Amino acid sequence: MSDVKTQKKSRREQAQETRERIVRAALEVFVEEGYTGTRMADIAKRAGVAVQTVYFVFHTKPELLAACFEYAVLGPEKLPPPLQSFNDNIRSARSGRAMLKAFVTGNAAICARAAAINEVARAAPHEPEARAVLDNSEDMRRRGLGDYIAQISQRFGLRDGLDPDKATDILMTVNHPQTYLTLRGYGWSEQEFVDWATDTCASQLLAKPDRR
User: Fold this and answer.
1) Residue-wise burial string across 171-197, b where 16 or more C-beta atoms lie within 10 A, e elsewhere
2) Residue ranges making up the domain that contains 97
3) Which of 38, 55, 76, 86 has the fewest C-beta atoms under 10 angstroms from its C-beta?
């Protein structure tokens, strides 16, 4: 008989596991039923918890939608994008193109996780609470991508006449979850998306786009 005893999980660990189980279930149900068609009871059933538990943890459906966005963006590292490991390659890049490729690669992984829930919120234009969650997500993306543009400008230089706001518009549009989802829907592989987005951003953003 083993002397090793299974360590009992703390209440905090149990609560975190329950929260994550609810979010994963919500992601599935939102994608299947849409924002309007999703009921908290359906999420509770999928997660294997009481509906009261879902309301206790998240209070409202918009809060749960926001948690789904956060879960998708943070990913397995459970870190905001500027702290995720792909930033190591951004910091060590020796050219603007290499820096953009590192960013696009990391962002594509985020898009792969977030594109579906992004579409759920976008497909509910008459639901102001869902729209507010989407707008907040877009605002956070703009701030984050604006920081990347500032890094590119400082280290490698932007194309002549291109101001940081317009550069951020370009970076956001090319690397948007919608763009990613559309091209993947056309049969593009993730690597094809990365190569295209890198080439497009390099030609549109960089003072010296052809430097490898």
Assistant:
1) bbebbbbebbbebbeeeeeeeebbeeb
2) 80-205
3) 76
